Amino acid sequence: MHVFVTGGTGTIGTAVIAELRSAGHTVTALARSDRSVEALAAQGAETVRGSIADLDVLRAAADAADGVVSLAFANDFGTAEGLEQAIAEESAAVHTLGEALVDTGKPLVVVSGTPWVPGRLALETDPLPLDGPVAGRARTVLAALDLADRGVRVSAVRLPRTVHADGAGGFAGILTETARASGTAGYPGTGDQRWPAVHARDAAALFRLALEDAPAGSTWHAVADEGDRVRDLAEVIGRRLGLPVAAVPDDTFGPFAPIFATDQPASGAATQRALGWQPTHPSLLADLENVTP
Asked: Where does the NAD-dependent epimerase/dehydratase domain lie (predicted)?
């Protein structure tokens, strides 16, 4: 099928495009700049110029495609205002893409994060939280899933806190970059809180499976590592960078502080059974050994 992808130059998007093309699909990807056009062309993707704020561009590209994977999310979220703006842009983009596919039966794959459930692993059947700094993303996904009743084969892939490749990406990547800037491999809270993780290439395989086979209205967990202790992540980062490891104030991590301090393990077992998805790439702790000083 011919697939329209937004967010195709990021860690996840790059892997998704490679996965789709290796499975015989063709890809058109959204490109904001000449540099993005070049990067996407190198991956074998066609391109359409624009950003996720260009709703007419999104509508036309979705209409011309056999399916859509929505991954774009602005990376300027170092402040609460920036995060709020990124969520608003994503919401408008997903709404536009979904409306373009109404009554077509075409697949739309949207993305959110895994939820957290006190005292146990979060499951695919658990609801997304409707409060907190990223509650707007949950509302976007829930609205998209409602399109299952309007002739869209929509599904949602929930990503864990770290989607990684080559020692970088996700919340663990923020720990690394914060350590480089501050001179301390810091962790919020006690460090005993657990974060789930998945390698980008494994996540990409799940996006392809959802695009090809997921029933309308279904939700999946791209979770390979159910929960690494944050202190253990910081220990590897500190060793790789030659920096001391210590607890730091939660607000070191800006608008994500409440999430960073939360214990939030998750399971992808039901997803693996139902879709035949099998993670095969390195775990997060192993991949962090690729962090370079």
From this structure: 3-214
**pLDDT tens per residue across span 165-180:** 999 999 999 999 999 9
Which of 172, 199, 205 lies closest to 187, judged by CA?
A: 172
Please give the angle made by the CA atoms of 69, 59 and 159, to the nearest 5 degrees.
25
Task: Check whether residue 118 and residue 208 sit in a common domain.
Answer: yes
> pLDDT digit string (tens) for 197-216?
999 999 999 999 999 999 99
Under a CB-based contact definition with an 8 Å cutoff, are residues 165 and 200 in contact? yes
Q: Where are the alpha helices (DSSP H) in the chain?
A: 11-22, 34-42, 55-64, 80-101, 135-145, 170-182, 200-213, 230-241, 257-260, 269-275, 284-287
Average pLDDT rounded to a whole number, residues 175-194: 96
Structural domain boundaries, residue 240: 166-195+226-265+281-290
Q: What is the number of other CB atoms lying within 10 angstroms of the CB of residue 28?
A: 20
Query: In which residue are the tokens 């020692």 written?
Result: 167
Mark whether 78 and 136 lie in a shared domain: yes
CATH code of the domain containing 86: 3.40.50.720
Looking at the structure, tell me whether residues 7 and 133 fall in a common domain.
yes
